[in-house]
Amino acid sequence: MNLLKESKRWHDDATVLVESSKIIELLEKFGKVTPTGSYVYDLMLDSDIDFFVSTEKPTRKLADEMTIALINNGWWNSIMFCDWSTNVPARPYFCIKQDFRGHRWKVDILMVSPSELAEMLPPRELYSRYSDAQKEQILELKVARRDGLLPEDIETVVIYDAVLKNDVQGVDSFKRYLEKQE
Questions:
Q1: Is 54 exposed, middle or buried, given 0-12, 13-18 or 19+ CB atoms closer than 10 A?
Q2: How does pLDDT run across 60-88, given as a tens digit for each residue?
Q3: Looking at residue 46, what DSSP letter applies?
Q4: Measured between alpha carbons, how far is 13 from 105 in angstroms, rounded to an integer?
Q5: With contact defined as beta carbons under 8 Å apart, do 64 and 92 qualify?
Q6: Does pTM surpass 0.70?
Q7: In this predicted model, what pLDDT tens digit does every residue of 35-59 receive, in sequence order?
Q8: Alpha-carbon span 131 to 65, nearest angstrom
Q9: Neighbours of 163 (CB within 10 A)
Q10: What is the C-alpha separation between 105 and 44, in angstroms, rounded?
């Protein structure tokens, strides 16, 4: 399958899920909502969407209120809430799931302060301006990671940087790039 078409299909389905679930409107009650990851950069290859909820005080009490709102919303099949002090950053994290259009969708939500958000977000300018050829290279490397040709713990942002900042093309070139980074 053409990776650009596959990615567009995933993105289109994600957009329908976001709109149908009204998840952004629900989360906005608790802070500023910032979508991130492959959904924002239109580089999706699976049923995973990420959001930050930025608030001056990402407290346990606010997270408890958000948990109740997610439950009362009634749209999600599964709601997991974590508040581990070992998280980096040590902030409330949610993983909500819904079966939608034949796939089990996972939505990750991290509650952070505005300063933490600024530190965690990659420069959007870089990731919003790329050619179809660069997009295809990124998607091919993500597939290679998924298929075990690359280490599964490679963060996606490393793939983005390799292609967009360093013109890496192909799995072998990416492996050499990783070796130089060590």
A1: buried
A2: 899 999 999 999 999 999 999 988 666 66
A3: S
A4: 10
A5: no
A6: yes
A7: 998 999 899 999 999 999 999 988 8
A8: 42
A9: 24
A10: 12
